[in-house]
Structure to design on (212 residues):
C-alpha cells in the first residue's frame, strides 16, 4: 500500500493534532517507578483496566524494594483482572530487583538501560522517555500500528518499521503529541473493527477512508 503524498501527510498531521489538543497519557501514576510499572501492566489490556487496579497496588508497593518484598504471588492477586497477569507479575518483580541492584531504585532515563529491564520493550521505553523525561518519541502500540498503516502515514508490516517510518513522516517536535493524538483517535473514532469515517477529522486525507 502506498504512503500519503507530502501534502496530504502534512494536512493529516495538522488536522489530527488540532482534533486532540489535550491528548496525553491516560495511565494514572504518582511516581516514576509507578509509571514504569503501569506501562508494563498495560500491554495488551486497556489503560482503564490498569487504572482500576493500580491505586491499591501502588499503596502496597511504593518503591522497587517494596515491590520485591510484596513478591510475585501477592502482586498477582492485585493484578489478576488484567490480561497476562502471571507473566506481568514475574516481569514487574524482576524489573524491580534490577532497579534496586543496578539503578539505585530509580528509573533510568535512557533507551538502552530501559530496554535492558525485564518486560520492557521499545514501546514501554518510548512511553517512559516521553512521559517522564520529556523526550520526543513515537511509541507504537496496537492503535498506532493500525492507524499509521491505515491512514498511509506508514506502509509497514511490523512495529519497528512503522516506528521508523513515522519518525520520518512526522516533524521531530511533534512525535510525542502525534503519538497521543493517534492513540486517542484509535480509541474514539478509528476503531479496529468499525472505523467511524463519517465523523473523522482526517477523512479527507486518510488513504483508507471508508467513504471514498
Ligand atoms: S477516515 Fe476512517 S479509516 Fe481513515 S482515520 Fe478516519 S476513521 Fe480511520
Amino acid at each position: 500500500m502506498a504512503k500519503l503524498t507530502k501534502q496530504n501527510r502534512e494536512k493529516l498531521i495538522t488536522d489530527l493534532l488540532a482534533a486532540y489538543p489535550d491528548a496525553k497519557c491516560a495511565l494514572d501514576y504518582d511516581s516514576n517507578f509507578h509509571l514504569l510499572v503501569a506501562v508494563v501492566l498495560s500491554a495488551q489490556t486497556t489503560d482503564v483496566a490498569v487504572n482500576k487496579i493500580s491505586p491499591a497496588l501502588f499503596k502496597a508497593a511504593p518503591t522497587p524494594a517494596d515491590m520485591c518484598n510484596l513478591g510475585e504471588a501477592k502482586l498477582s492477586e492485585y493484578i489478576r483482572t488484567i490480561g497476562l497477569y502471571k507473566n506481568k507479575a514475574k516481569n514487574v518483580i524482576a524489573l524491580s530487583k534490577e532497579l534496586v541492584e543496578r539503578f539505585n531504585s530509580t528509573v533510568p532515563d535512557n533507551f538502552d538501560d530501559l530496554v535492558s529491564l525485564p518486560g520492557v520493550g521499545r514501546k514501554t521505553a518510548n512511553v517512559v522517555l516521553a512521559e517522564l523525561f520529556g523526550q520526543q518519541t513515537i511509541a507504537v502500540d496496537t492503535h498506532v500500528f493500525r492507524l499509521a498503516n491505515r491512514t498511509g502515514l506508514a506502509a509497514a508490516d511490523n512495529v519497528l518499521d512503522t516506528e521508523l517510518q513515522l519518525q520520518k513522516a512526522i516533524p521531530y517536535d511533534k512525535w510525542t503529541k502525534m503519538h497521543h493524538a493517534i492513540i486517542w483517535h484509535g480509541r474514539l473514532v478509528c476503531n479496529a473493527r468499525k472505523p467511524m469515517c463519517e465523523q473523522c477529522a482526517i477523512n479527507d486525507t486518510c488513504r483508507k477512508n471508508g467513504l471514498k
About this structure: Residues 150-151, 189-190, 195-197, 200, 202-203, 206, 208-210 surround iron/sulfur cluster (CB under 6 Å).
